[in-house]
Amino acid sequence: MKKILALLLTIFTAFGLASCNGYSSSYVATKFIKQEVNGHCQAEFESLKGRYVFKLRKSGDDGEIAYSGSLEEGELHVYYDSLGTKELLFSLQAGERVEDCGGYFEGGSTVFIILETVGTAKGSVYIDLI
User: Fold this and answer.
1) What is the DSSP pairing of strand 97-105 with strand 63-81?
2) In a domain? residue 109
3) Which of 84, 86, 113, 125 has a CA between 20 and 30 Å from the CA of residue 22?
């Protein structure tokens, strides 16, 4: 009986830890510089292929997401999730630049920023929770 309880506890613990957030990074990159601090993240990359996930948190009031980015090559889609639904924040094609605000998050909640490329991309992205 103890073995069965221990096995069940192990399975539930492993499942709980694995399902804490439904997003995982899976990428290949060169010269990939990333930073994630106090409601701010940035990524600069010579080459990025796949998905990279930032996990941000900002205490205080509800707010918006300020963002900027540029892409020299490829295609990039940036999503956010703060309420359990993945939403498109912005997209970039080769040669495009963007600087804007959008997206909503609740103060104190976790905000996932998800970078997804179509093929290989080269560029930079800056995100601030305001």
Assistant:
1) antiparallel
2) yes
3) 125
pLDDT-derived band at 15 (thresholds 50, 70, 90) equals: very low
Please name the helix (run of DSSP H) or strand (run of DSSP E) that holds residue 18, with its range, or none.
helix 2-18
What tokens were used for 63? 């707010």
Q: E strands along 5-106, which residues?
A: 26-37, 40-57, 63-81, 87-93, 97-105
CATH number at residue 83: 2.60.120.380
In a domain, 19, yes or no: no
pTM of the full structure: 0.81
Is 9 part of a structural domain of the chain?
Answer: no
**Predicted pLDDT at 22:** 81
Structural domains of the chain, count:
1
- 34, pLDDT greater than 60: yes
Tell me the average pLDDT across 15-26: 66
Decide if 69 contacts 124 (C-beta within 8 A): yes
